[in-house]
């Protein structure tokens, strides 16, 4: 082999060969790292082409479900072959939103107003004091019907409100498992007692319809605040205007509660899902309205008016109480010649026996 006569040229050739070897090595390392990544690019491109060329069957399924398309099911209940509907989502938002929120505020404000009224007005006593003479106000059948319906109403109100607000109020306290057990029992109690309450409400409306017909003096009763303000008590017959307002609220809203309750309790009658959704909203709204009125009724009968509770417990009221709160009715009794009877004497408490001296 013949040696080169130019050493500088040999050095340049060696440097070029070294740079070429380095570039070749770096190129191979790049290819070693980059070539496996081309698989991801190919898969991504293939998936994109598949997504453009085909439709996800699950999206079609849920689109059809939201549009209330009918499917197949072995269940024979009405509309059991419909999975979900947009109207159902709207109903849920109304139930958990405006209905629950405004209903809670209505009841809370009613209780606050009654508490403020008691602090400002206090208890209304009998101006001339008890006379010791009484007249019959409610018969035994009236009182039995009243307490029968009242007890059932309280149970229905407790169970109904716990089902409407239980998830927000009771579940954090009781826990999910305990609340689930309670809610299941509350549903059964509410559904079965509702049938018996319907009987009492219908009988009550029919029995007391005649005495709750509005009269001309009822307007002046409302304008004077029902005698709760300072001044002369307004004229009132056997039933005052406030009691008539409660009666007609029970009659109208109670009728709505009964009709919607039957629709909800018997879905096998064939009503549509939309009818049941509207019925539940009406049922809850009418019930909250009646509960709010009952708050005032209980307050006036137990705390605000002295002597009022005696009429529905024993059936008789003091003559002076009747003349003060129901003067037209008291005058009517006098014209009919109804004679008051002495109030039952209260048993006197026996004086405690004096301690006997110890035997000597």
Protein traits:
three-stranded antiparallel beta sheet; 12 helices; 2% strand; 360 residues; Fumarate Reductase Cytochrome B subunit
How would you portray this structure in words?
This protein has a domain at 94-139 and 209-341: Transmembrane di-heme cytochromes, Chain C (Fumarate Reductase Cytochrome B subunit). The protein is elongated, with a radius of gyration of 40 Å. The protein is mainly alpha-helical and 360 residues long. Helix 3 runs parallel beside helix 9 (273-304) and helix 4 packs antiparallel against helix 6. The model is unreliable at 35-47 (pLDDT under 50). The chain has twelve helices and three strands, in the order αααβαααααααβααβ. The protein has helices at 7-53, 57-66, 86-121, 140-169, 171-174, 176-208, 218-223, 241-265, 273-304, 309-313, 319-325, 327-336; strands at residues 133-136, 316-318, 341-342.
Care to give the gist of this entry?
This protein is mainly α and 360 residues long. The protein is 68% helix and 2% strand.
